[in-house]
Design a protein that fits this description.
Elements (H helix, E strand, L loop, with lengths): L1 H17 L3 H8 L4 H34 L8 H21 L6 H10 L4 H34 L1
Keywords: Membrane, Transmembrane, Transmembrane helix
Protein name: Small multi-drug export protein
């Protein structure tokens, strides 16, 4: 049991904090149960979202502003984030976070536009549950089909 928890923590939870798709890939590579992979992937994304939701203002004020006080306010990348936010809002940003953005990037976009923390956590949780299930089932069954086809 402890071995599976350690595998899920290091192979699914931690990688899905950085890039959401790494969680299901790690779970498949470690031959974890599909439900363990789904839950650990959701937990990894929600850990980052919660951390940035509650510490985002502090990070922006104390770290980013001190590291680059003279940064350009509207770069091309910032304009893309503004376009995503205006077009889709918090629900769209949460939906696109696992696909296009990372959990860190999606959280930063939502926090920087002043979305309420309770809505952010709710929408990100729904998105994480949906995409974790889709990605994990897709990875597990796709790689099983490819493995059978290659054999």
């Amino acid at each position: 049991m402890w071995e599976e928890i350690l595998k899920a923590f290091t192979g699914v939870y931690l990688p899905s904090m950085l890039k959401f798709f790494f969680g299901p890939l790690g779970g498949y590579a470690l031959k974890l149960n599909i439900f363990t992979t789904i839950i650990a992937t959701i937990a990894g994304m929600m850990t980052v979202v919660t951390a940035f939701a509650f510490a985002g203002d502090w990070i922006r004020i104390n770290i980013i502003n001190r590291l680059s006080p003279n940064r350009k306010r509207f770069s091309d990348r910032n304009k893309r984030f503004i376009m995503i936010w205006r077009k889709y809002g918090i629900a769209g940003t949460a939906f696109l976070t696992p696909l296009i953005l990372t959990p860190i990037g999606g959280s930063i976009v939502a926090i920087s536009f002043g979305s309420p923390k309770d809505k952010l956590l709710l929408y990100m949780f729904i998105s994480a549950c949906f995409w974790s299930s889709v990605f994990t089932v897709g990875v597990y069954y796709f790689f099983d089909l490819v493995k059978d086809w290659l054999m």
